[in-house]
Amino acid sequence: MILRMSKMYAPTLKEDPSDAELASHRLLLRAGMMRKNGAGLYTFLPLGMRVLNKVEAIVNGEMDAIGAQQILMPFVQPADLWRESGRWDDYGPELARLNDRHGVEYCLGPTHEELITSLVRNELRSYKELPVSLYQTQVKFRDEIRPRFGLMRGREFLMKDAYSFHATQESLQETYDDMSGAYARICDRLGLVWRPVEADSGQIGGKVTTEFMALAEYGEAEIVYCECGYAADSEAGECKCTATMYEREAMEKISTPGIHTIEELAGFLNIPESSCMKALSGKDPEGNITVFFVPGDHELNDIKANRVVDGFELLTDEEMIEAGLSKGSMGPVGLPEGVRVIADWNLQGISQWVVGANEDGYHYAGARLGEDFKVDGWADLCQVKPGDACPTCGKTLLGARGIEVSQVFQLGTKYSESMNATFMDEDGTEKPFIMGCYGVGVSRSMAAIVEQRHDDAGIMWPAPVAPAHVCVVPLAHGDELVEPAARKIAEELEALGLEVAIDDRNERAGVKFADADLIGWPLQIVVGKRGLAQGKVELKLRRTGEKRDFDLEGLADTLSSAAKNAIAGAIDPFDALFED
User: Fold this and answer.
1) Homologous superfamily of the 252-379 domain (CATH)
2) pTM score, two decimals?
3) What is the domain partition of the chain in residue ranges?
4) Fold for the domain defined by 459-578
5) Of 239-248, 273-282, 455-464, which range is least confident?
6) What CATH superfamily is the domain 33-238+399-451?
7) Per residue in 6-47, pLDDT tens?
8) Which of 295, 343, 514, 534 stands 20 to 30 A from 479 (CA)?
């Protein structure tokens, strides 16, 4: 079917929406791909749906290829299942809760670990039936506190989520590797520039997880990477940094009036920030207080802090005063009794510290580890950043920003144990399923493509997900030469297997050109009176903006090879037409 733009519901916008910050948000709205209905809520219009459906088809095809089986679970989930897993209270305010007319509690599904576990525990009974991988593509809802950036951080989004069930860790590892390979192929087939990175499992659970990050200048996540191949989300990466020592003969108390930040302290003493120790205080759910110390040129990683002190929360100013702590002058010397000291492991080799004196306006220089103060525990606490050492090879880490488009997890028995989901093993004993889960942000991937492939004029879709491969643009509406020629070209290209649109609207040429670039058709074929008089049409490659005249006679033959490449899923199948 040829897409006739005169019949398409594709309302483009000339101006950028005032609340659209990222390129993907701005251009998907302007190109008539979607419309905003509320904070973090969007309707996909026909052109946007064509792209979304193609992304989904690529994802589902890769799932089918590795033996995963498609299902569809309810969007609304019973609260009782979430209480079984313990996440009803733990998940937090992002979980949208509701009651039906009978007062029964439910939630809008942000993810489906509980529901899938409840499904298989009543069906899979023997090790002989394992492993099993099930997946769905469905809307999810997470009540983000600040939905922004369009599809990047919306409240409702389309996601493919898969879950696998195993009798052994070896079986889980095999499926985890298969899923990781499928996710890599998905990124490649979508035309993304991407990296697999070490990540944190967050509220999903499990200790082994990898994120697939599409690199983008304005990506939401910071990542570090090394030429050796190591890469990690900055929140999850192991931090190996170099703290420096400010050596003194003995600990000295120094007056530091008005000094409350590391930057101020380092400037006052004329020493590097890495020679100062940053202190942050917090408490666990029982109220026990811990002070964390990290090198002054780094930040405490909240996720790592929670691994050391489960439920760790920073103290408020009032709570610090109540606990006898001095904001801006905290140090390990003379802390109130019962306060635990945990320090970043990069400080273990620093025998003398520059720290707060636990008295406003004073700091200690040369505080000696083991003599003037003690440390109760050491841990990886810092947020890794570019310039730190690679934990794999020791070289300097580089930095980039990325968009998480997919993630794979090894869940272990987190859900099967809490929800009593077991099978009969080969030795005749009941054992909990070993589980994995695997998610692809389908709508988020669509936005990531736009972030990587756009210019000031609009989107530059890779052919596999473009609304159509080619748009034929007749320049004279109603002309008895131009319009028949344009229709014939469209029909011949469709016969080659290409997806074709024709802009048959009664609009000026400038409007058609602007919309063609904005929408992002990979190839534009311009049909005008002057060109036809010479037996020519103009082809424009959207990705580069390059234009060339081609003979109208035999145009289908000229494009036949490119058509085969497009049908085969080539990212940029028309580039060869413009090569010398």
Assistant:
1) YbaK/aminoacyl-tRNA synthetase-associated domain (3.90.960.10)
2) 0.89
3) 33-238+399-451, 252-379, 459-578
4) Rossmann fold (3.40.50)
5) 239-248
6) Bira Bifunctional Protein; Domain 2 (3.30.930.10)
7) 999 999 999 999 888 899 999 999 999 999 999 999 999 999
8) 514
